[in-house]
Design a protein that fits this description.
This protein is mainly beta. The chain has a single domain (4-427), classed as Porin (Beta Barrel), CATH 2.40.160. Helices cover 5% and strands 59% of the residues. It has helices spanning 4-11, 134-140, 142-145, 410-413, and strands at 25-27, 30-43, 49-65, 68-83, 86-102, 106-113, 149-158, 162-169, 204-206, 217-226, 229-239, 244-251, 262-269, 272-284, 287-303, 306-323, 326-339, 346-360, 365-374, 379-391, 394-404, 419-427. Strand 4 and strand 5 form a beta hairpin. Helix 1 packs parallel to helix 2.
Length: 428
């Protein structure tokens, strides 16, 4: 499996529609917000695949003291689907459950949740703390796709608009193709694998990372402002969110058949990586200009014969501008990886990303067109979305996404996942 970086680069460009939020329920220092939504999806190139995803979300924030804040956000999701056969699944999850203590010079947040690093609009190479769910990436965007981890974050506020942030997180959460019946999901790329000879019933063995002191993840980010430029540098040592598959062979005993047969099992592992990153942002006139680079100085790559040790660099620059009813966004993101073992293994590609939003009738209607293109592989993804705010708390959405080209990158791997969807969303 290769190109997981490109999933992050691709699907984060399809954020959920921003609608006028319904008034939250307030009682003193207690704020309660929620929503109920249903999403119907059909896949035009998979005639026997249709889904209905229904979700309820509740978000509670309580400011018990001027220095103490609590946050609790949870979801319950139900799937009814035809994926070549009837499939039903349900899941209840906490997305955030933490307490935060804040003073003038420091802030400590501890619990379970999602933390964001990075600067680029939608594509953030250094946003590595939380693993990702691919299905939600495509359907709702990066914010909803982050999977929570147990963490402690300390921020110290220094003079001169400088902040030092330290994060320690437990492992144990892996990236998912889909939290709802993952094995049958259209977004599960392992369904496309041509498996080697394996013993019946073995399947894929997952070497999960136990939550132990020796497996802690952690990093530091220092942010400051110089003139009109906001900037930061960061470092992180953690585990890969998506696993790497290896074929582990073994020989059957002589008595198990006429002749010994070499068979094996697919093993999914989650190796460590080390990242050093920097980012910056400024505003010139009506344009916001952002840049970000992440160097993975110790990383596992998908080589032609299995995982290999190597290094990688992700670098990007982006601009966006909001003018009246229009918002335009564009960026160039370059990725390069090479093996520290084999000098013949090197990969690089450039992705061109752009989107255009247009709002109508006092922002009651929204039309968005988004595209990403990999010129070298001649592949790309295009999505169009239309939204109607029936009321402040009720929204209807329609969307369609198409993968184009026959490239060998991650975009090309999703070439038969074109989809059309409709959503109704009620907020309270």
């Amino acid at each position: 499996m290769s190109g997981w970086w490109l999933i992050a680069s691709l699907v984060t460009q399809v954020p959920a529609v921003q609608t006028a939020a319904a008034p939250a329920s307030r009682s003193g220092n207690l704020v309660i917000h929620g929503e109920v939504s249903s999403l119907a999806i059909t896949y035009s190139k998979q005639k026997d695949t249709r889904e209905l995803r229904t979700r309820a979300l509740l978000d509670i924030t309580a400011s018990l003291k001027p220095w103490l804040r609590l946050r609790l956000e949870g979801t319950a999701e139900v799937l009814w689907a035809d994926r070549g056969g009837s499939v039903n699944d349900a899941i209840a999850t906490l997305r955030d459950a933490w307490a935060e203590v804040r003073q003038d010079s420091f802030e400590i947040r501890a619990g379970y949740g999602r933390l964001v690093w990075g600067r680029l609009d939608e594509v953030m190479p250094s946003d590595v703390i939380n693993p990702i769910e691919t299905a939600t990436f495509f359907l709702e965007g990066r914010t909803a796709a982050r999977l929570p981890v147990a963490f402690t974050r300390t921020r110290v506020f220094l003079p001169g608009d400088t902040t030092v942030e330290a994060v320690v997180a437990l492992p144990g959460r892996r990236g998912r193709f889909d939290r709802l019946d993952e094995k049958t999901s259209p977004f599960n790329l392992t369904r496309d694998l041509v498996l080697p000879a394996v013993l019946p019933g073995l399947g894929i063995r997952r070497e999960s990372i136990p939550a132990a002191w020796r497996n802690l993840q952690g990093g530091v980010r220092v942010s400051t402002t110089a003139g009109r430029v906001d900037m930061s540098v960061s470092a992180w040592r953690g585990f890969e969110g998506f696993g790497f598959l290896s074929f582990v062979p073994f020989t059957l005993p002589t008595g198990s058949g006429p002749t010994p047969s070499v068979v094996g099992q697919l093993v999914e592992s989650y190796p460590r990586f080390t990242m050093l990153a920097a980012d910056a942002e400024t505003v010139r006139g009506g344009w916001a200009i952002r840049g970000e680079v992440a160097g993975f100085v110790d990383k596992t790559l998908d080589g032609p014969l299995g995982p290999v040790k190597g290094k990688a660099v992700d670098a990007g620059v982006g601009v966006d501008r909001a003018a009246g009813d229009f918002r335009v966004f564009g960026s160039l993101v370059w990725h390069r990886e090479w093996s520290s073992i084999s000098s013949s293994y090197t990969r690089d590609h450039l992705n061109v990303i752009a989107s255009l939003d247009r709002r109508f009738s006092r922002e009651r209607y929204l039309v968005r067109v988004f595209g990403v293109v990999n010129p070298e592989d001649r592949s790309g993804f295009v999505r169009a979305l239309a939204s109607w705010s029936v009321r402040d708390n009720l929204t209807l959405e329609g969307s369609g996404g198409a993968f184009i080209g026959q490239g060998t990158d991650t975009i090309g791997r999703f070439v038969d996942r074109d989809f059309v969807s409709a959503r109704i969303r009620y907020q309270f």
